[in-house]
Every structure is written in structure tokens, then in C-alpha cells.
């Protein structure tokens, strides 16, 4: 699903060259749950943005779902991105004036789906993340964990093959973060590929594979037995369950 070869992204900042990512060669198969780890500034977000085609490499090759990204027209790339990839960020990035349903519906507007069909699919996506009873709430009326669940619903409403998440639990307390990872794990088990950036080893335990970055280089690539997030959540004392 993802194949990179010598993927490199350097930024020119005045006289200085910032080597954000250098020579990353990696392949990810459909349906994997990959955690990208590393300290702050190690190139994780730069890697994720390249994988999501939000940025272009300085050099190196990238094939996404069998397509050479560099060779795609802007239109074809935009279509590939909107149909096959879902994005989730640390800061939720929801429209504050719109309710949950309208936020989740938004990606479908660009697909020319009729209003009724959009609403139905958005409601289903919200139900899938446990927010079937919060369709009309605005972000300000929801907790941080609930807002991130709306963001996940928005990311998955178009049934992408790949979910990209940059520190999705970064703004949440440990328990709420666990509930978010649990949702991601359920989606992955249903077949969705996941690439999740995190600097938190506790969160990376739920992935089936861990990539480690340091100073813009890929320095580790290990498969692991994933811990079960739902089981860990269920084992928490009831009064401490995430909102
Ligand atoms: P991480 O997500 O692991 O914290 P990043 O990928 O965001 O790291 O950044 C890697 C390095 O590249 C950092 O030194 C960062 O300051 C630099 N960097 C990232 N984006 C830019 C940019 N647009 N311009 C200049 N430098 C950047
Ligand atoms: Mg980052």
C-alpha cells in the first residue's frame, strides 16, 4: 500500500538546511497498524505528511496504492487522497460552528453525494465511534475525547483504505487516549490500514509494527504482538472510564 525508496525532505531555512527526513525506505502492506515513534523533531510528521501527499519529497520515490505519486496529475492525486486516505490530527481541526453531523458530512460534499445519502453515512460513521447520540452537538459542547471521535468519524466516512493519524491522543488524558486508540484498533481489525504518529510508547503498544525515527532517519522497524486496547479499557475502574 505504501512503498518509499530513499524518501527525503529537506527544508531550506535561510543559510541552513533542515534535514527533516533523509533516505527513508519502507514498505507497508494493506491492513497493517503501524506506529511511527521518535522524539520531538525526529521527522515523524514530515514522514506522515509525505505519505498523505500533503507535501512533496525533496528526493526519493513514493508509490501509494501502486501509483507513482510523482507522476500523478494534481487532480488524480487529490482524488486518490480524498477517496483512499483519512486524516486525524492532534488538534481535531473541527469546524466550530457546525454540529457533529455537518463536520462528518463535509468530505462527502466534494464527492457529489446527495444530502440524504451524506447525512445517512455521516450518522453511521458517528455511530461507529460511539457518538450516535451526539449528532447535533457542536464541538464546544463535546469533551476532547468526543471531539477526537468526531474527527475520526470524519476521517472514515468515505471508507478510506488508510487512516493517517498524527499524535491523535496527544491532547488527551491517558484514559481518553486509550479509548481513541481502541476505536482505531477496531477499525484496523476491520481491515483499514493505519499509520499513527506518537511519541508515547504506551500508545505504540497497540500497533502491530513500530517504525522508529531519529534525526530524520528510520532507525528501527519491528513487528510486535499488539496489546488489546478495549481489554485494557474494560479493566479500568468504572469511575475512571473515559468520557
Ligand atoms: P516530529 O513530528 O517528529 O516532531 P517534524 O517532522 O515535525 O518532527 O520535524 C522534523 C524537523 O524538520 C524539525 O527539526 C522541524 O523543525 C523541521 N521542519 C518541519 N517542518 C518544517 C518546515 N516547514 N520548514 C522548516 N523546517 C521544518
Ligand atoms: Mg510531529
Automatic annotation (TrEMBL):
An example molecular function term from Gene Ontology annotations: ATP binding
Keywords (A to Z) from UniProt: ATP-binding, Nucleotide-binding, Transport
Superkingdom, taxonomy of origin: Bacteria
Database matches in Pfam families: ABC_tran
InterPro entries: AAA+_ATPase, ABC_transporter-like_ATP-bd, ABC_transporter-like_CS, ABC_transpr_LolD-like, MacB-like_ATP-bd, P-loop_NTPase
PROSITE patterns in the cross-refs: ABC_TRANSPORTER_1 (PS00211), ABC_TRANSPORTER_2 (PS50893)
Record-annotated ABC transporter domain positions: 2-240
Name of the molecule in the record: ABC transporter ATP-binding protein
Organism: Roseomonas nitratireducens
Amino acid at each position: 500500500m505504501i512503498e518509499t525508496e530513499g524518501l527525503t525532505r529537506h527544508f531550506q531555512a535561510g543559510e541552513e538546511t533542515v534535514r527533516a527526513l533523509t533516505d527513508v525506505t519502507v514498505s507497508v502492506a494493506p491492513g497493517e497498524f503501524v506506529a511511527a515513534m521518535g522524539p520531538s523533531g525526529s521527522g515523524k510528521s514530515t514522514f506522515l505528511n509525505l505519505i498523505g501527499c500533503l507535501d512533496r519529497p525533496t528526493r526519493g520515490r513514493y508509490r501509494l496504492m501502486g501509483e507513482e505519486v510523482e507522476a500523478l496529475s494534481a487532480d488524480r492525486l487529490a482524488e486518490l487522497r480524498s477517496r483512499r486516505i483519512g486524516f486525524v490530527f492532534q488538534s481535531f481541526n473541527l469546524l466550530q460552528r457546525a454540529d457533529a453531523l455537518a463536520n462528518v458530512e463535509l468530505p462527502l460534499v466534494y464527492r457529489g453525494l446527495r444530502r440524504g445519502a451524506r447525512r445517512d453515512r455521516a450518522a453511521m460513521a458517528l455511530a461507529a465511534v460511539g457518538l450516535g447520540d451526539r449528532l447535533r452537538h457542536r464541538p464546544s459542547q463535546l469533551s476532547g475525547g468526543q471531539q477526537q471521535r468526531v474527527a475520526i468519524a470524519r476521517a472514515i466516512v468515505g471508507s478510506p483504505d488508510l487512516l493517517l493519524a498524527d499524535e491523535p491522543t496527544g491532547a488527551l488524558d491517558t484514559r481518553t487516549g486509550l479509548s481513541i486508540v481502541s476505536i482505531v484498533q477496531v477499525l484496523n481489525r476491520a481491515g483499514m490500514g493505519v499509520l499513527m504518529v506518537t511519541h508515547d510508547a504506551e500508545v505504540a503498544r497497540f500497533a502491530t509494527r513500530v517504525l522508529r525515527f531519529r534525526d530524520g532517519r528510520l532507525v528501527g522497524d519491528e513487528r510486535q504482538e499488539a496489546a488489546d486496547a478495549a481489554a485494557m479499557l474494560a479493566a479500568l475502574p468504572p469511575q475512571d472510564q473515559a468520557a
